[in-house]
Amino acid sequence: MTNPEQDLQAKRAIEDEFVKLGKERRRLEGMLGKNLAAIVNQIPEALDAGISFDGVAKLVGYPRQTLYRWQAAKRIHAEHHAD
After folding, report:
1. What does the alpha-carbon distance between residue 61 and residue 81 come to, in Å, rounded to a whole number?
2. pLDDT of residue 10 exceeding 90
3. C-alpha 7 chain-centroid distance
4. Dihedral (C-alpha) 39, 41, 45, 50: value to the nearest 10 degrees?
5. Which long-range contacts (C-beta less than 8 Å, at least 24 apart) are formed by 14-21?
6. Residue 1 has what pLDDT?
7. What is the 3-state secondary structure (H, E, C) of the chain?
8. Contact 52, 24 (CB under 8 A)
9. What gap in Å lies between CA 26 and CA 46, rounded to an integer?
10. pTM for this one?
11. Distance (Å) of CA 67 to CA 13, 28, 71
12. Which of 2, 9, 16, 20 lies 20 to 30 A from 61 at CA?
């Protein structure tokens, strides 16, 4: 026979752990967003310094297509908020 109180405590402990993991994931996503913004902001400077787009992609460990998408998204955002 199971103990409902112990079952409830065990369930609550698991839920608490998931809440903690979710908070950590959101914190890491926020840090990743800041990192991605910094990468995109540095791309023009890197290109001016003679570092190829492929070189940038290799240095930061992201596919070139991803960097192009980020740049396009930044450009679109800037265009829509330039008013």
Report:
1. 30
2. yes
3. 36
4. 40
5. none
6. 56
7. CCCHHHHHHHHHHHHHHHHHHHHHHHHHHHHHHHHHHHHHHHHHHHHHCCCCHHHHHHHHCCCHHHHHHHHHHHHHHHHHCCC
8. no
9. 30
10. 0.66
11. 41, 20, 6
12. 20
Q: Are 10 and 38 in contact (CB under 8 A)?
A: no
What do you get for the CA distance between the two ends of the chain, in Å? Answer: 68
Nearest Cα to 70, choosing from 46, 35, 31?
Answer: 35
pLDDT tens-digit map of 16-47: 999 999 999 999 999 998 998 899 999 999 99
Q: What is the torsion angle, in degrees rounded to the nearest 10, for the CA atoms of residue 55, residue 58, residue 60 and residue 61?
A: 160
d(CA 71, CA 77): 10
Is residue 70 a contact partner of residue 39, using CB atoms and an 8 Å limit? yes
Q: Which amino acid is at 24?
A: E
